[in-house]
C-alpha cells in the first residue's frame, strides 16, 4: 500500500465511531453559515425599503417582518451552531481517543530493537503533544475548512447577483491571499518539524533527569545537567521566537492586503452607488459580504499553518504506527499442536550482534534438557543476558545467525505470546510498577489468589519484609509509597516470576543485590518448589551456580568451558580461577561441612 493510502486509511481508522458526529457537525455548520449569509440581504431590503419609495412600499410599512426574520435567523443559526460545536467536540475527542489507543497498543508491540533506537522522551511526546496538536486541528480547524469553502461560494453567489464589476474586484484578491497563505504554509512546515524535534529532545532531558535523579545527585552533575537543559531550552525557545516572528510578518502583511481589499470595495462601491449602478442597500450588503469574507480568507493562513502543524504531528504519529510490530502468530493454534513437545532448549551455532553489527555471541551451541538447571558464568558484557533475550525472542535471530529450539521446534515458528508465557524471566534490573506490592507480584497472573501471591513471596524470601511494611501487601511501591532496596525489588520480581509457574525459569543475575545467605535460602526454596521446570541461573557468583546440573562459562561471547561444578574445578580453567578468587578459606570450609 502506498504511503498516501496508508495515511488515508489511518485517518479513517481514527475517525471510526465518529464519522456520523462529524457529518452532523459539518451540516450544522453549513446551516449556520447559510443562515448568517441571509442577514446582509435582510439589511439590504430593510435599507432599500426605507429609502426606496414605492418599490418596497409594503416592506417599509411592515418593518417588523424584517425584525422577525433577523430574530428567526439568529435563533436557528444559534441552534445549529450549538449542534455543530457539540458534535465537533464529540468527533474530535473520539478521534484523539482512537489515536491514543492505537499508539499505546502499537508501542506495546514494537520490537526491542525499535525501542533501542528511539528515545523515551520522543515517544512520549509523539503520544501526547502530537496527539494534542492533531486533536486541536480536528476540533477547531477541520470544520473551518468546510465552512470557509461554503461561505466563499455563498458570499460570491450573493455578491455576483448584486454587482458583477465589484465582485470581480473582490475575486481578484482571493488568489493573492491564497497564494500568499500557501507560500507561508510551505515556509513554516519545515520549521514546525524542527521545533517538534527540539521539544522531543527537551522532554528527553527532563525525563532522564527525573528518572535518574539519584545518579545526578550522587555524582554532583546538577550543574552539567542544568547547562544541558538551558542549552536545549534556549534552542527550543529560539525556534519558537523565529516561528512567532514569521507568524507576525504573515499577519501584518495579510492585514495590509485585506485592508486594501476593503478600501477598494468601499471606494469603488461608493462610486457605483453614486452612478446608480447599485442601490444603497445593495452597497451595504455587498460591503458586509466583503467583510465577512475577509476573515475566513485571512484565516486560511491560520488553517493552513495549523494544518501544517497537524500534518507534521500526523507524520510523527504515523512514524510510530507505521513501524513494524513483533510478528503475530496464533498462540491457540500452536498450543494445540505442541502439547507433547516438552521444553528442551537448544542453541545451535548462534552468532549474534545488535544493531551496531558488533558480534556479541559467536558460535554458541549448547542444550538444556527439560527439568535440569543450567548455570551461566561470565564477565560483564560477555553476552549472558543476550542469550536469554534471544531465547525469549526479545531480539530475533536473522537468517544465517544459527537457530534456537524449544521442545525441538525453532523458536521463530513459535508464537511470541506462547514463548513469553512459558519462559519466565527475572531481569537484572527489575521494573516495578507504581502500584501495590500485591499487584506487582500478580502482574503476570492478575487472577491469582492472595494465598498464591503470598506463597510465591515466601519462596522468594520477601514475605516477612512485606508484612513489616505499613500496609503489608497493599503497600504502594514507588514515589507515592515505600522505597524498596535493590534486593527487595529483585525478590518481588522473583515472586512475580514464580507466580507465573512457567516451565522455563530464567534468573538473569537476579540475586546480585541480596546477601549470600539469602541467595542460598532462595535457591533452596526454589529447588523445593521448582516442579519440573527448567532453570537457567545467570550469575557472577560461583556459589549461586555450583549446584546446577551444568555450568557454562562465557567469555566475550564464546563458550569457554562447560560441565558440572566438579568437572570445571578439575579443568583448572577460568571457572577454577574465579572459584578460587571468590571462595575464601572460610567459605570453602563451610561448603565442605
Ligand atoms: N540492546 C543492545 N543494543 C546494543 N548492544 C547491546 C545491547 N544489549 C547489550 N549490548 C551489548 O552486547 C554485549 C553483551 O551484553 P550482555 O548484556 O549480553 O552482557 P552480560 O554478560 O549480560 O553482561 P552483564 O553481566 O554486565 O549484565 C555488550 O557489549 C553490550 O554492550
UniProtKB/TrEMBL annotation:
TM segments? 21-43, 63-83, 168-188
Q: Where in the cell is it found?
A: Cell membrane
Q: Where is the ABC transmembrane type-1 domain?
A: 23-309
What keywords were assigned to this record? ATP-binding, Membrane, Nucleotide-binding, Transmembrane, Transmembrane helix
Recorded superkingdom:
Bacteria
Question: Under the GO molecular function aspect, what terms does this record hold?
Answer: ATP binding
The membrane topology of this protein is: Multi-pass membrane protein
Per UniProt, residues of the ABC transporter domain are: 345-581
The record's section on Gene3D superfamilies has: ABC transporter type 1, transmembrane domain, P-loop containing nucleotide triphosphate hydrolases
- InterPro entries xrefs: AAA+_ATPase, ABC1_TM_dom, ABC1_TM_sf, ABC_transporter-like_ATP-bd, ABC_transporter-like_CS, P-loop_NTPase, Type_1_exporter
Extract the SUPFAM superfamilies matched here: ABC transporter transmembrane region, P-loop containing nucleoside triphosphate hydrolases
- What is this protein called in UniProt? ABC transporter ATP-binding protein
Question: Species lineage, top-down?
Answer: Bacteria, Bacillati, Bacillota, Clostridia, Lachnospirales
